[in-house]
Amino acid sequence: MKSLLFKVSSALILILLYIPIFFMGMAIMAGSVMAATVHISYTDSNLYSEMEDQLEDMGFTVTGTNSGSININDFSSKDLHINVAGNSNCGSTCKTAYETYIGNGGTVLIAGNGDNDGNRTGNIEQLIESKLSVGTITVLNYDGNFVSYANGTQYSGDATSGYWVTRNLFSMNSGGTALGSNNSTGTHQYKSWAAYSYGSNGGRLLVTLDQTQFNNTTADWMTRAYAFLQQTLTEEGILTSSTAGITSTQQTKVTNTQATSQNNNKIYINQSGTGIQLNITQDGDDNLVIGPDLTAAGQLTGDNIELTITQTNNNNIIGIDIDGNSNDVDITQNLNQSALIDITGASNTLNLNQTHLNNNGEHFADIKIIGSSNVLDIDQTETGNKTLFLDIDGSNNVTVDQKGTGNHFLDVILTDGHTIDVTQDGSGNHNAELNLSGNNTTLNLTQDSSTAQNYYLHQNCTQTSCSATVTQN
Fold first, then answer.
1. How far apart are CA 394 and CA 374, in angstroms?
2. Residue numbers of the domain that contains 329
3. Does residue 5 register a pLDDT over 90?
4. Helix or strand or coil: residue 28?
């Protein structure tokens, strides 16, 4: 007796178009993951564009090759390789590349073209059964619009709220773990997604037999498919769940700094060295210029340092500690601001402007820089609390603009040479934590929304260079 298969008829598709769809406005929480690198082999540019956008929203750094031929050099150092190369076969060269890559601990996601008896589907079956020898499957002998549900206790929320559609299914006779099937309980004979382990280094093969689920014309189906994919990659350890946000220790530092007694315009600077140009203007209320520990002198030591500090009105605080070389510092603060800045050596340039449009909101910055030719431009403007921590070691080019009426938080630690441009805007309360190391990474992050956004990126770039553009709105 044949197992009952759950299909979506064309009539049902038409009906769904007229039903209000809960998932239409739902955004995958891109910021709740640790970024990783992915390479995509594709032949359909529209499919690649959609996958690139979705994966970058998850926090991935994405590269792609428009070819059905597989070259391990394209993805040998990536965290994930995705093969959605249309009708192209995964022949012997492809299988050997995947055997090596997965054997070294990599993860491959390969998707069929929905043709149950086509060469590509057969080659995927051979990859599982004979090349890797991790299991056996039987492909369903006809195609259709079959419903696909996420199965397993690791899935929750968006990925289990409904089904999406895949054109082909398979039964798992031995080996592997089913991740999706043709019913919501996971008991159905025919599966839509499976995962296989290979080798002793933690390598994984993820298999599904239809690429159109990644670029489906029905928006809620595609949203569910990507929600499922994000949770799968998190479960596989490629994306690590985390949340950006101020810690209790950091908040204590902010609170203690803002509570420091200014005693009406206190300035204490211990200057030493040559070529220093100093221009300090304080006007009214409880301004303070003193060292970054808020007890010792502000201290300026040596070389061609230029410093301009302007504070006007209300409870401004600046701590400063500069130690030599050709540093150039400009600081302007207005109303309820704090800035603790340590700079040591080389040709660093810092411009910090903290202001808001009325007496509503507090801005805080804690910036530490050590060496090389760093260039920074940091603006914290408008109402709402803006909090920034920045720790730089090496040659970096940083531009940060925190504005809008929301309460924004940013914690950046950079090592080596990186270029970042971060904008936090809008009335939503946005959080971002960036920690970059390794080779040069270029990152453009925009959080601009009335809805709170969260982004978390810890990345060690092992390529010649890495780059990503992320927009959350």
1. 7
2. 248-410
3. no
4. coil
pLDDT of residue 23 exceeding 60, the answer is no
Residue at token pair 């998190």: 234
Q: How crowded is residue 450: how many other Cβ atoms within 10 Å of its Cβ? A: 11
Written as six digits, the tokens of 271 are: 């200057």
Q: What is the pLDDT of residues 125-180, one digit of tens each?
A: 999 999 999 999 999 999 999 999 998 877 755 444 689 999 999 999 999 999 99
Name the 3-class secondary structure at 31.
Answer: helix
Q: How far apart are CA 170 and CA 148, in angstroms?
A: 12
Among 303, 305, 343, CA closest to 327? 305
d(CA 315, CA 298): 18
Query: Each residue of 321-330: pLDDT tens digit?
Result: 989 888 889 9
- In the chain, how many domains are there? 2
Q: Which residues pair with 300 in a beta bridge?
A: 271, 322
Which domain-ending residue is among 378, 410, 442? 410
List b or e across 176-192, with b for residues whose CB sees 16 or more CB atoms inside 10 angstroms. bebbbbbbeebebbbbb
